[in-house]
Amino acid sequence: MQSQTSLPDKILEWLNKQGYPTEFQVANICDRHGFRVFQGYHVSSESPDVPREIDVLAQADDITDDYLIRVCHIIECKWSKDKPWVVLTSRHGHLARPACVAQTIGNLLGSTLLYRMAQDPDLHKLDLFSTPDHPGFSGRQVFSQGNDLFYSAMQSVVDVSMLDMAWYYKPPRRVGTLPRNAVIAFPMIVVDGQIFEAFFDEASQNMRVEPRQRVRVHWRGARSWRLHATIDVVSLDHLDDFLKTRAQDVTIVLDKLKTKRNELARCFDEKLLLS
Questions:
Q1: Domain total for the chain?
Q2: Which of 78, 98, 147, 249 is most buried, taking the most CB atoms under 10 A from its CB?
Q3: Domain assignment of residue 274, yes or no
């Protein structure tokens, strides 16, 4: 007589196939590296009745009574053990490091501070603002039919990043005063499965495909961000090592943002920005 699978086991099997354990694993790893973590975080969308969900939101803050400085990681989680992801890369998509800094997604004050810090050589040394020789520009979930999961994931993670940044515009401020919130966002896609890089090898004049743990994409196709959107596609197996470096970088960036924010605040206080 064959044993029957229990209902809890069937539910667990269904959850695994839907990718829910991936979200929990990602949240747990982010928490271990000192980030403040939210799962299933919702942000207001263009349609008030249809909020958008962020799979995992991981934040690091510098907060006082006068200001909030925040670095956000907007993470989309994808279970794809049955179908590898391939990211197409090209040397023609290289982005200078100052441009990578300046084009980071942020709210009004966050983007302004980064623009003023774009030439900072200390930031150029960080993996956070690295620009690979062969950045990604497109990709696909291999062997899939129908919907382009890569494209939809890219659009989605940038869209919810922008919606999250829009929330920080809500508190009203008096004309001539510095915004209280300086927030920047780094969209990420964590794949529970294999990732490959596909590129054109000029020596052999053929395409090559190689396994990767992480590929950085300078995405030009974002509908909600007119500049390059830098998105990291990271395998779940590599996430712990990735976040170890990322947590160190974020500490440096928070300190830099604080220093630049305070410089700007002094200019406002002394009315040095008035002509």
A1: 1
A2: 78
A3: no
- Reference 90, options 196, 200, 195; nearest CA is 200
Bridge partners for 41 per DSSP: 54
Helices 108-116 & 239-269 angle (0-180, nearest 10): 90
The pLDDT value recorded for residue 273 is: 58
What would you report as the CA-atom Rg of the chain, rounded to the nearest whole angstrom?
20
For residue 236, give the amino acid letter: L
- Report yes or no on 146 lying in a domain: yes
Task: Report if residue 8 sits inside a domain.
Answer: no
Q: Are 54 and 74 contacting, i.e. CB atoms less than 8 angstroms apart?
A: yes
Would you say residue 6 lies in a domain?
no
Nearest to 135 by CA among 175, 164, 97: 97
Q: Percent of the chain beyond pLDDT 90? A: 73
